[in-house]
């Protein structure tokens, strides 16, 4: 069963995004179309031969806590090691760190393939990369040398240990304590952490937690949070570092990845090693979290893509019913893909998954430019990425809950059974609006921070980039109308934002009350923009008489679908955002 | 944990719907507020003491096929028998059938409580009622006497056996064969049926299938389908009737109810007994199916309600974060219910679940009037119910997938774990847009049949009833504005329908291409209407100075929420329905 389209990924990277432009930067200069293609081919091979075959099994054979240790699917050990040996974990890092200086965009594209194949399995190396990235960026030489080689090799698992029972969305309230010891940089850690992905399992020799904690006497709130490396086993002697696994969470989906509840230092025997400066932990974490957030959007798009292709395959094969007006029961039934409503359900999935993939790769490229570029270009890329991050995290996450639901619907009763993978995709998609910041949190981030930072400079960049695409489309007769339509929506969006801005200082609660709706509103605009971009690229090929007509026509149809069925939702959201009635502010607890 | 609100159910039935009006009909004349309350109390007691305690267990301990028999949770036997002994299965039937002539509205209200407590458990008696209803309505005396008493008693399970591998949505293509025997009315049945709910289990002594099959030589298509009673065991001697269980489906949710794959007459040993006349099976089935469809809407609303109350309880208790602008970490965190975005998520759930419950009970009352009334009133009630049925089935089904998702979101990470019931509700809600006709099928039913039948008479009735409510609201200063707003939406909806009607004969494919969107569009209108009705009832109490201020204020707030956040969606849907671009018709299979 196909779980993604290599043809589309090629289009996204090389035709639409022009990813080869990145090789013009000094940092990426050794790369070429050949190295990029090798990365994609290698990813596809692992995905097809190692990850996808375990998709169902890993869902059925959940991690279990056995004698204080989480037992995971036996197949994962080999996979994690393979990720290490093949250089995936540190692929984007510099040569002198053993990396390949691979652009993040390519790493994300490979991740997309892994996630579409088996989301649970893809989580392990991804977390190790994130944790190692924190150590190599903010840690001293000793920490780097002690911890990163085995992480890069896939021998040790990395984690991000943030959440506590009383501190989930509100990280400022975390209370895990760090007590100084005689040795500089070494602290005794004590507390508990919950929902720690891959926080313990039996496929690696050690687990390296990048853990937030509060040094004794530090200020309250976010200003008193520090970052520590806390290994499960002491590196010096391989003995327990008093990080005990209290439990494993059983959950609705992505069951193949264990989520642990950890007790740290219950026996006063846990050592943690300070990363960077004291009290700067949250800012370190947030610098990395932005990448992780775009990554979550990618997870969602990937799962949505796998569900789309599963439902597409079914729709082509399943005969049921006849054309409207054709009721002759002696005639054979037609494949359901010929029904308009089924095509609508497929176009919905295709337009959301390919539209979000386009945005996510665009964001990844911004990240690469922010890293490898310089001057104004670098600064603008970073700023625009900052603005787009809550959208890139949340819109795919929310929408792929709906597209996977639509995939189930295409299969009908069959889709609800475990005989097909779509029900699993439906369950797995549901985590993404929650982890790495809930959708509500990202709404507040976008409207409360990103839209107003530097006097709205990021927002203006966003508008400028969309306007460029509109201008280009207006020069092409076949899609001129769509360019003009998006221009109207963009203008109206600017009016809406202007209206909201009048409330910023006057009534901050009212300003932010519908931040989640604003996030969706902006998300639709961003994806409509990405569809106009893709349509420009496709139309250029059609105008040239490219023989691969069907592929490009599909892109044009998705543009039309998205504008007709999704873009119009901005009308409803915009109306609400302009309204003055505030039931969510006036509602009282005892009225529910 | 509360899973529904008795206060709201009382409001819905006695204040808003004025259900006591039904006791004016001869058929219901023995009933009174006391008998109705007894029914509700009895339902609540079973739900709380028998059904809810098994909710989680039945999800974890799935039905299994053991030696050709489906083994279900051991607790179900007692529950099914209790439903029988307490008279729930035939409660709505006439006195001379051992029933209580209970209005369907009360039976549905009781069902709502059962379904909110444990949807899987509620399915068993519900199916037996449906099957028995077909026998007693269309079967001869012998069939009635042979089969219904043990079904009423909860000793025998009833089922609806329609679906086949090649005939799901397209029932006209079913191919199970019935060969006449020497005995009149007795046929040899041969074929297979899939997705048969409660098609086999070990909690009853026999399973009585109401099965669609084609008598040898019958016309092709829907005109050649007959209805049979096909018991699992012969009644005469208790021996096998050659209905073999080939498999049990494993599915995403409502795992407590077994769904069977049945082989019928594989050994040429299956007898079926014709119900009513030959070749009229589908019309018999459809007369019953309408009730079942409103029932599915109720299932969805009930599961949505249980999820709403679970998330409400959590939101009141869970401290996290602080008010906007208040960042002082030395102050305690506030319960999340105080955040505007959480209130929005709760108001969404409340407005959808109470709004759909209102519509569903309204439809049930129409059914009672269509049954017990006469003349014009009876005819109009039947016609309006016919029109509303696809909406009452589909809008709650689709929307409660979203409200249960929102319930998960309110709990955040906790909601994704199996430590809380919301993830189960999310999985269980997902079946309803599929069974008893997919949403797509109901869209075609509404736009292709119901909207145009009798020259649009049913549609006109719908508009008339909404207009009455608007007129009433416009007389009440507090909600006059909402009455006027709905009036504008109603007028625009009539224009939209008028526009669609221009396509009926000219281009039937274009007319029906967006039938699913039309269904949603009409659904929003119907629920906005129900909210205006509820608000009128609530405002009357507030105007009278009713001391129970909080409850009624909650209703007014929901009206405001629904109009601000949901009604506006008609703007987007309406724009699409008026548009001429038809990507779902033009899209080609090989362009995907």
From TrEMBL, chains A, B:
MF terms from GO for this chain are: flavin adenine dinucleotide binding; short-chain fatty acyl-CoA dehydrogenase activity
Q: Which InterPro entries match?
A: Acyl-CoA_dh-like_C_dom, Acyl-CoA_Oxase/DH_mid-dom, Acyl-CoA_Oxase/DH_mid-dom_sf, AcylCo_DH-like_C, AcylCo_DH/oxidase_C, AcylCoA_DH/ox_N, AcylCoA_DH/ox_N_sf, AcylCoA_DH/oxidase_NM_dom_sf
Q: Which Pfam families match?
A: Acyl-CoA_dh_1 (PF00441), Acyl-CoA_dh_C (PF12806), Acyl-CoA_dh_M (PF02770), Acyl-CoA_dh_N (PF02771)
Look up the EC number in the record and give it.
1.3.8.1
Q: Which cofactor does it need?
A: FAD
List residues of the Acetyl-CoA dehydrogenase-like C-terminal domain. 462-588
The record places domain Acyl-CoA dehydrogenase/oxidase N-terminal at 35-155
Question: Where is each Acyl-CoA oxidase/dehydrogenase middle domain found?
Answer: 160-263
Q: Which residues form the Acyl-CoA dehydrogenase/oxidase C-terminal domain?
A: 279-444
Class of this enzyme: oxidoreductase
Q: Which keywords does this chain's UniProt record carry?
A: FAD, Flavoprotein, Oxidoreductase
- Record's keyword annotation contains Zinc-finger: no
Q: Which family does it belong to?
A: Belongs to the acyl-CoA dehydrogenase family.
Official protein name in the record: Acyl-CoA dehydrogenase, short-chain specific
Could you tell me which species this protein originates from? Answer: Cecembia lonarensis (strain CCUG 58316 / KCTC 22772 / LW9)
């Amino acid at each position: 069963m196909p779980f993604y389209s290599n043809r589309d990924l090629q289009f996204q990277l090389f035709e639409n995004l022009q990813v080869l432009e990145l090789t013009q930067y000094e940092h990426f200069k050794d790369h070429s179309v050949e190295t990029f293609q090798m990365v994609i081919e290698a990813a596809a091979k692992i995905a097809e031969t190692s990850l996808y075959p375990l998709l169902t099994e890993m869902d059925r054979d959940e991690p279990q806590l056995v004698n204080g240790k989480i037992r995971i699917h036996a197949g994962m050990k080999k996979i994690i090691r393979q990720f290490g040996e093949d250089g995936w974990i540190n692929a984007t890092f510099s040569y002198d760190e053993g990396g390949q200086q691979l652009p993040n965009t390519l790493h994300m594209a490979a991740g997309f393939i892994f996630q579409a194949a088996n989301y649970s399995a893809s989580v392990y190396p991804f977390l190790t990369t994130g944790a190692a990235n924190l150590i190599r960026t903010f840690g001293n030489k000793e920490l780097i040398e002690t911890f990163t080689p085995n992480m890069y090799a896939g021998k040790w698992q990395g984690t991000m240990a943030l959440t506590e029972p009383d501190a989930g969305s509100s990280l400022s309230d975390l209370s895990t304590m760090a007590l100084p010891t005689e040795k500089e940089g070494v602290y005794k850690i004590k507390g508990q952490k919950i929902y720690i992905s891959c926080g313990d399992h039996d496929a690696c020799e050690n687990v390296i937690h990048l853990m937030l904690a509060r040094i004794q006497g530090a200020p309250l709130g976010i200003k008193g949070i520090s970052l520590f490396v806390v290994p499960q086993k002491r590196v010096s002697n391989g003995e327990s570092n008093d990080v005990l696994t209290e439990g494993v969470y059983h959950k609705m989906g992505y069951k193949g990845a264990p989520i642990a509840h950890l007790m740290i230092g219950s026996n006063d025997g846990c050592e943690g090693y300070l990363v960077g400066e004291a009290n700067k932990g949250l800012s370190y974490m947030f610098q990395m979290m932005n990448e992780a957030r775009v990554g979550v959007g990618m997870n969602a798009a990937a799962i949505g893509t796998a569900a789309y292709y599963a439902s597409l395959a079914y729709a082509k094969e399943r005969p049921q019913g006849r054309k409207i007006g054709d009721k002759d029961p002696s005639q054979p039934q037609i494949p359901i893909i010929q029904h308009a409503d089924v095509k609508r359900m497929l176009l919905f999935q295709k337009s959301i998954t390919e539209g979000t993939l386009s945005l996510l790769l665009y964001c990844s490229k911004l990240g690469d430019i922010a890293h490898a570029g310089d001057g104004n270009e670098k600064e603008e890329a970073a700023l625009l990425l900052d603005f787009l991050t809550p959208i890139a995290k949340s819109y795919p996450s929310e929408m792929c809950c709906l597209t996977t639901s639509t995939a189930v619907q295409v299969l009908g009763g069959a889709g609800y059974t475990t005989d097909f993978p779509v029900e699993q995709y439906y369950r797995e998609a549901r985590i993404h609006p929650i982890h790495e910041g809930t959708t509500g949190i990202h709404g507040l981030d976008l409207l409360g921070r990103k839209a107003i930072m530097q006097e709205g400079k990021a927002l203006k960049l966003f508008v400028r980039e969309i306007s460029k695409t509109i201008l280009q489309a207006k020069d092409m007769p076949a899609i001129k109308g769509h360019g003009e339509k998006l221009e109207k929506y963009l203008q109206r969006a600017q009016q809406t934002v202007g209206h909201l801005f009048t409330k910023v200082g006057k009534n901050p609660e009212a300003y932010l009350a519908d931040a989640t709706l604003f996030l969706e509103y902006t998300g639709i605009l961003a994806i409509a923009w990405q569809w106009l971009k893709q349509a420009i690229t496709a139309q250029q090929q059609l105008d040239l008489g490219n023989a691969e007509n069907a592929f490009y026509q599909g892109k044009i149809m998705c543009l039309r679908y998205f504008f007709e069925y999704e873009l119009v939702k901005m009308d409803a959201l915009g109306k609400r955002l302009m309204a003055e009635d505030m039931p969510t502010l006036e509602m009282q607890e005892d009225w529910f």
